[in-house]
C-alpha cells in the first residue's frame, strides 16, 4: 500500500521522501532516438535515489492518512513498518524491489544503491504516447529510383519541341502587332480633338522655333471684345494695391499689440490667484504600495498549507506562480535544516487549528495531497 502511494506521488512531485529510508528524486528526460533499434521514445521522467534525504516533510504520511481515513500517527506507523520490511530484505537478500519503480541493493562499501526500472511513463505531458518504430531509408533504394526516373525521361520521345518554339515565335509577333495597333489608335483619337495639337508632343519644335518663352508668348490670343491695359494704367493699379497692403499691415500690428496686453493681464490675475491660495502649492504625498512577500527564507512560527515540495527552486517558483494565478497567497519556503526541498504554500495561519480548519476548502482546488507545515 505504501509503494502504491509513493508511485502516485511521483507523477505530481519532483521529490518524495520515505522517512528513515531516503528520498526519490525525478528528473526530466527528453525524447530518445535509438540508432540500432530505430525507435523513438517520448519524453519521460527518470527516478534517482538519495539516502541522505531522511527528514520527513509530511507529504507521504499525510497522503496515506487522507486516502485511508486514518490518523497521521497510524499512517506514520505504516510507513515505519514499510521501512523495516525494506531493511530486513536488504540484510537477508541484499535486494529490495519497489514495485514499478526500481531495485535497491548494497554495494561493496555497504552503501545503498538504486537501479531505476523503466515501466510506466511518470511524465503527465507524455501520457498515452507510445514508442514509435521507424524503418530506415536505405541508400540503394534512392539510387534505384533515380535510375528508373532517368531511363523513363530518356525513353520519352522528344516530340513537340519544334512546335513549342514556333508557337512562342507566333505569340511574340502577335503581341508586338497588338501593341503597335493600340498605340496607333490612341494617336489617331488624339488627333481628332480640335483643341489638342499633336506637334506639341515633338520636343524638337521647342528648339527650332526659338526659346520656350518666345514660343509661348507668340501663341497668346485675346477675344475680340477684350482691350489690354496700358502701361500707365497698370502702374496706377499697382500703387493702389501697395497702399491697401500698408493699411492692412498697420491694422494687424495694432491687433497683435492688444492681444499681447490681454495675455499679460491674464498672467497677472493667475499669479494673484496663486498667492491667495497657498494650499495649491503644497506637495502631493504619494503612498508607496508594499510589494508582496513571495519567498520565506527564515523561521516565522506560522502554519503553512503546503501544496508540494520541489528539489529545484525554478520548479518551486513555477508552482508558486500557478497558485497566485488562482487568486491565493502563494509563497516559496526555502529548505529547512536537514532538508533540500523548496516547498510551495497556498496560505498561512497563526495557529494549527486555523490551518487544519481551512484544509477542506483548499482540497477542492489542490487535491488531497496538501498538508500543514509549521515553519
Q: Which key terms come to mind for this protein?
A:
375 residues; Alpha-Beta Plaits; alpha+beta; five-stranded mixed sheet
List the helices and strands and how they pair.
Blueprint: H1 2-12, E1 15-18, E2 22-29, E3 32-34, E4 39-41, E5 44-50, H2 59-68, H3 72-93, E6 96-98, E7 102-106, E8 112-116, E9 132-133, H4 139-155, H5 161-191, H6 205-208, H7 212-218, H8 231-276, E10 295-296, E11 303-310, H9 313-325, E12 331-333, E13 342-349, H10 352-357, H11 359-366, E14 371-374
Parallel strand pairs: 10-12
Antiparallel strand pairs: 1-2, 2-5, 3-4, 4-9, 6-7, 7-8, 11-13, 11-14, 12-13
Helix pairs in contact: 2-3
Describe what this molecule looks like in 3D:
With 375 residues, the protein is α+β, with helices and mostly antiparallel strands. Among the domains are: 2-133, no CATH class; 295-374, Sporulation related repeat (Alpha-Beta Plaits, 2-Layer Sandwich). The chain has 11 helices and 14 strands. It has helices at 2-12, 59-68, 72-93, 139-155, 161-191, 205-208, 212-218, 231-276, 313-325, 352-357, 359-366; strands spanning 15-18, 22-29, 32-34, 39-41, 44-50, 96-98, 102-106, 112-116, 132-133, 295-296, 303-310, 331-333, 342-349, 371-374. A 5-stranded mixed sheet has the order 10-12-13-11-14, with helices on both faces. The chain has a 3-stranded antiparallel sheet with strand order 1-2-5, covered by helices on one side. A hairpin with a 3-residue loop joins strand 1 (15-18) and strand 2. Helix 2 crosses helix 3 (72-93). The radius of gyration is 48 Å and the shape is flat. The two termini are 30 Å apart. The model is unreliable at 209-220 and 277-286 (pLDDT under 50). Pfam families: HU-CCDC81_bac_1 (PF18174), HU-CCDC81_bac_2 (PF18175), SPOR (PF05036). Residues 297-375 form the SPOR domain. The chain crosses the membrane at residues 170-190.
Amino acid at each position: 500500500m505504501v509503494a502504491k502511494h509513493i508511485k502516485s506521488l511521483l507523477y505530481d512531485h519532483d521529490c518524495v521522501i520515505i522517512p528513515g529510508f531516503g528520498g526519490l528524486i525525478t528528473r526530466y528526460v527528453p525524447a530518445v532516438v535509438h540508432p540500432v533499434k530505430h525507435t523513438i521514445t517520448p519524453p519521460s521522467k527518470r527516478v534517482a535515489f538519495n539516502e541522505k534525504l531522511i527528514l520527513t516533510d509530511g507529504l507521504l504520511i499525510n497522503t496515506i492518512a487522507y486516502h485511508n481515513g486514518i490518523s497521521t500517527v497510524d499512517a506514520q506507523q505504516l510507513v515505519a513498518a514499510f521501512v523495516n520490511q525494506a531493511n530486513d530484505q536488504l540484510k537477508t537478500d541484499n535486494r529490495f524491489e519497489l514495485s514499478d519503480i526500481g531495485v535497491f541493493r548494497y554495494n561493496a562499501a555497504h552503501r545503498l544503491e538504486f537501479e531505476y526500472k523503466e515501466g510506466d511513463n511518470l511524465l503527465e505531458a507524455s501520457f498515452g504516447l507510445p514508442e514509435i518504430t521507424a524503418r530506415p531509408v536505405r541508400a540503394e533504394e534512392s539510387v534505384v529510383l533515380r535510375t528508373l526516373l532517368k531511363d523513363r525521361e530518356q525513353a520519352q520521345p522528344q516530340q513537340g519541341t519544334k512546335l513549342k518554339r514556333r508557337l512562342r515565335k507566333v505569340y511574340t509577333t502577335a503581341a508586338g502587332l497588338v501593341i503597335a495597333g493600340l498605340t496607333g489608335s490612341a494617336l489617331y483619337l488624339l488627333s481628332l480633338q480640335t483643341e489638342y495639337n499633336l506637334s506639341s508632343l515633338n520636343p524638337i519644335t521647342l528648339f527650332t522655333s526659338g526659346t520656350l518663352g518666345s514660343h509661348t508668348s507668340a501663341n497668346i490670343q485675346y477675344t475680340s471684345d477684350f482691350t489690354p491695359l496700358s502701361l500707365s494704367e497698370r502702374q496706377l493699379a499697382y500703387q493702389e494695391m501697395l497702399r491697401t497692403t500698408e493699411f492692412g499691415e498697420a491694422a494687424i500690428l495694432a491687433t497683435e499689440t492688444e492681444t499681447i496686453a490681454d495675455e499679460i493681464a491674464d498672467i497677472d490675475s493667475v499669479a494673484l490667484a496663486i498667492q491667495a491660495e497657498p494650499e495649491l502649492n503644497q506637495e502631493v504625498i504619494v503612498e508607496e504600495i508594499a510589494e508582496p512577500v513571495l519567498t520565506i527564507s527564515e523561521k516565522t512560527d506560522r502554519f503553512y498549507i503546503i501544496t508540494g515540495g520541489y528539489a529545484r527552486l525554478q520548479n518551486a517558483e513555477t508552482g508558486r506562480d500557478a497558485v497566485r494565478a488562482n487568486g491565493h497567497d502563494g509563497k516559496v519556503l526555502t529548505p529547512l535544516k536537514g532538508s533540500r526541498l523548496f516547498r510551495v504554500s497556498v496560505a498561512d495561519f497563526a495557529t494549527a487549528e486555523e490551518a487544519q480548519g481551512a484544509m477542506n476548502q483548499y482540497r477542492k482546488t489542490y487535491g488531497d495531497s496538501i498538508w500543514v507545515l509549521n515553519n
